[in-house]
Amino acid sequence: MNRMKKNIIKTILTVTIIYSGFTQQNDIRNFNTLTSSIPQTDRNVLLEDQIVFRYGTERKGLYYIPDVLLAEKIYDRFIALDPDVTVEALFTIPYPEDLPDGYDRDMIFYNILREVSNISGVQYYSRTKKKHRVLFDDVYAIDDKKNAVEDPVVLSIPVYDSIPIHMDEANLGEDYYLAEYHYDGLDIAFSLTNTSNMKYIFKVVGEKNMQIDLLFMPLKNELLVYGYCGVKLSNPGFVNRIMNPYSSFFRRLYAMEIWFSNTLMNEDKKPEPSLLESGRL
Length: 281
Prior knowledge:
It contains 7 helices and 12 strands. By secondary structure, it is α+β, with helices and mostly antiparallel strands.
């Protein structure tokens, strides 16, 4: 057998082994295996409410994150930032009836995350105003000169990509972010990092000191989503006097899940007013 044939066979075997590995992982992983590290009481809340979350006021760390390959990306970001404020959440999203399987399904998920303009109009519940308000507005992808560009949807999923975006936020004004995407053949990781200072009278969060991460893990009949937001505050004394930073930044994390879920399910879901009171510690 000549060298070329040997190389072709070796390549085919390698691809087959990798694909078989992904298939086997999909077969053995399910809701129970991916949530095995969290308390049973929290798991029950997730099963009933499709969301469970915790504020890191007493325990600093990532306690909800499932043991999957792309979780390492989030761990690395968390360790590098060493945030003052940490919030975590797990969500489940049922699949729409017409959703395809496998790679075609992943393509739909991936392009929803690249259609960043749809973040515009996502709402939160303001306890001071006692009504729902728009949290993010005027969201769009930008080029190197910060000019608006069309949502950069794709025809195939790259292992890694990034998009700079513009966003107007309630209370914190105009900000810029870097959206990053990772795909390993099973799961999709989506992250946001602020690339400008975030201000409310004074600087609240410095450049690159806020992280929002969402990890999308497809299961047989639903999507399990892990969420994390970590923040290093610039003026913690001032910030703690004017807001609860844990609930404030959880709202931003939750808004990202609502954006994805509403787009996938073609819904207009809004946060429950009482939800912020149910966070674990």
